[in-house]
Amino acid sequence: MPTPPASGSPDDRPPLEPIVVLRPRRTDALAELFREMEAGTRGLEPVAVPDPHSWDEGETQELPPVRTEELRTPRRGDRFGFGPGLRRAAVTIGVGAAALVGFGCALLLPGRDGEAATPAPSPTASAEATPTPTAAGPTDPDGAGTLREGDSGPEVTDLQQRLLRIPDVYKDGSTNGTYDATLKEAVARFQLWYGIRGDENGVYGNDTRLALESRTGTG
């Protein structure tokens, strides 16, 4: 058990009592605000609000009845019954008709030399008067001067002589100037070996001619 402190010890002192701190309220600003509100309402005049139950319904006036004749007859129209919209439409139609008449008169007026203006020719008449150029003969898709099986002449002979200069293409071939099946096979073989694809197979066209002349000379 704890023993009480001896007399004269430092702990033998009177107990401290709590201190209450009073903070004054700032009511001055609130009072000043109330005074300003009262001063602001002094200059206003009170307005009496009438009681809605005290209104007299007898003061209201009824509208005069509408006559049937006024509904049938236009109020703002003329004696024929035309309103503003119909008058605007009539004016627009009249202006358009006058413009058409003026344009027609301008076409019929004589020219500077006193002669009547001639109407412009129609596109159909111009097409009929212009002669249609005759179409040229069908062009060869492989180019001009193309040789194929069935042709003959000095150009075929020149082809045969050039193919004989290419090894193993037209070996021991004839130079009789006739484009026969043997010559066609030789031309097709030359096209296949040298990768010529611009002409028909076995047809001596422009692409085949350029490739053959570049390898055999132009003489």
From TrEMBL:
Keyword terms of this UniProt record: Membrane, Transmembrane, Transmembrane helix
Compositional bias annotation for Low complexity: 116-146
TM annotation in the entry: 89-109
UniProt-annotated stretches for the region Disordered: 42-78, 114-156
Basic and acidic residues biased stretches: 67-78
InterPro entries according to UniProt: Peptidoglycan-bd-like (IPR002477), PGBD-like_sf (IPR036365), PGBDSf (IPR036366)
Transmembrane recorded as keyword: yes
Record-annotated Peptidoglycan binding-like domain positions: 152-212
Protein's UniProt name: Peptidoglycan-binding protein
